[in-house]
Amino acid sequence: MSDPAREARLRARVVELARAQDPYAHIFAGKEFRRDYVAARTVAWSALFKDIRDTTSRVLEIGSKEGRSALFWLEFFASAHLTCVDLFNDEDAGRFDRNLAAYGPRLRKIVGTSIKALGSLREENAVFDFIYVDGSHQRDDVMIDCLGAWRLLRPGGVMLMDDYTWKPENPDSERVAPAVDIFLAWHDDAEVILRSHQVAVRKRPA
Ligand SMILES: C[S@@+](CC[C@H](N)C(=O)[O-])C[C@H]1O[C@@H](n2cnc3c(N)ncnc32)[C@H](O)[C@@H]1O
């Protein structure tokens, strides 16, 4: 039987161990965070995205919270411009602003729902080399985010989706995986380059 308190303790321990070994820990030093969804990923991300590091100049992130993953993209893709979309409607928003204050010219913040932001970006004919989908975890929202983001990704670009294995006990409508699975079934132009807790796909040239 699942024991939520024990699971939370284990998760906290994993994050603590990951932080102790994180070669990118210096990026986050002195910043304000309440949660860490990133420390356990930086090693895998830097290996997986090594080849696109120098050619990625336009990055979109759906779901930025306090800015931890945003900071990573800005440091890892050192010459990239980052567009962050989030509701930014609670105290995370202040932390995001303070954590990212030094990156002003390389950062665009879009406040609001991803469905609205993706529509506006499409109207602007925006194009991205790399997109991180980590906003709402409700199936229908994830579906909208994946489809909307895919249209903004250039051929050869990479899209990364978080939390594929999140909460398997939830009903389908409250999980990420069913949306990602449908997205992959619809899109044979998506070459899967990672399928674990996160799924990464490269857009095949037309
Ligand atoms: C898991 S957090 C993102 C964590 C962040 N990527 C990181 O690693 O530091 C999810 C974020 O998605 C945002 N979010 C949820 N639903 C959204 C929606 N419909 N449109 C835009 N953002 C949304 C939340 O406000 C929250 O900040």
TrEMBL record:
Keyword Methyltransferase: yes
Cited Pfam families: Methyltransf_24
Alphabetized GO MF terms: methyltransferase activity
Keywords, in A-Z order: Methyltransferase, Transferase
Cited InterPro entries: SAM-dependent_MTases_sf
The keyword Glycoprotein belongs to this UniProt entry's keyword annotation: no
Example GO BP: methylation
Protein name from the UniProt record: Class I SAM-dependent methyltransferase
